[in-house]
Amino acid sequence: MINATAASRSLERATEIRRAYAAGEGSFRALGQRFELSESMVSLIVSEKRCPLVPRPRRPTVVTDELRARRALGGRIGAARTRSLYSPQEQTAAARAAFRERFTPANASDLDPAEVEARIRAGIRAFMLRISLKSAQIRNAKRTARIAGNNGEKGQRNDGRH
After folding, report:
1. DSSP letter (8 states) at residue 62
2. Measured between alpha carbons, how far is 10 from 52 in angstroms, rounded to an integer?
3. Farthest CA pair distance, the chain
4. DSSP class of residue 97?
5. pLDDT at 1
6. Within 10 Å of residue 19's Cβ, how many Cβ atoms?
7. Do 59 and 73 meet the contact criterion of CB atoms below 8 Å apart?
8. What is the full DSSP assignment across 98-159?
9. Model confidence over 93-126: pLDDT tens digits?
10. For the ranges 45-59, 76-90, 93-107, which has the lowest average pLDDT?
11. Does the pLDDT of residue 158 top 50, yes or no?
12. What's the gap between Cα 132 and its chain centre?
């Protein structure tokens, strides 16, 4: 929330900047240095379009089904536009290269390129297997907690399904 005293001081400061500029006391740069602001900030204040020193209070956004649908449609339009301009391989090439780089051995320059490729694939396979193991452990822990919530009754699930 905006502090009323701080907002009042900011408005006074903006008024002082406008008065100084109108009196010809300096350029945007000089006033920016004097008031410790950027030239563009001084320009905004002088133009009186809005006072950037006083933030506008934000209205809370009520997310309705219509708004969700509009946002989803906007996302789908953006994705379709991106797909029409670039190939998926082109878009993800840097990310795929960075991912593979994580598994490149430190002594790759000393090894045969085929050996480097084999080690990268083995590293990726080990990484994926670790992720799979973690996922199975989490699923098992959830299942155990769900069953424990039924006071040990067999065949009963706690998620509303039979």
Report:
1. P
2. 9
3. 85
4. H
5. 47
6. 10
7. no
8. HHHHTTS-TTGGGS-HHHHHHHHHHHHHHHHHHHHHHHHHHHHHHHHHHHHTTTT-TT--SS
9. 999 999 999 999 999 899 999 999 999 999 999 9
10. 45-59
11. yes
12. 26
Residues 6 or more apart whose CB falls under 8 angstroms from that of 50 comprise: 44, 56
Give CA–CA dist 32/41, Å, rounded.
Answer: 8
H-type alpha helices, 36-112:
39-47, 65-85, 88-101
Tokens of 66: 């219509």
Q: At what angle do helices 39-47 and 4-22 cross, to 10 degrees?
A: 90
pLDDT of residue 30: 87
Neighbours of 28 (CB within 10 A): 19
pTM comes to 0.46
Which among 20, 16, 25 has a CA at the least distance from the CA of 51? 16
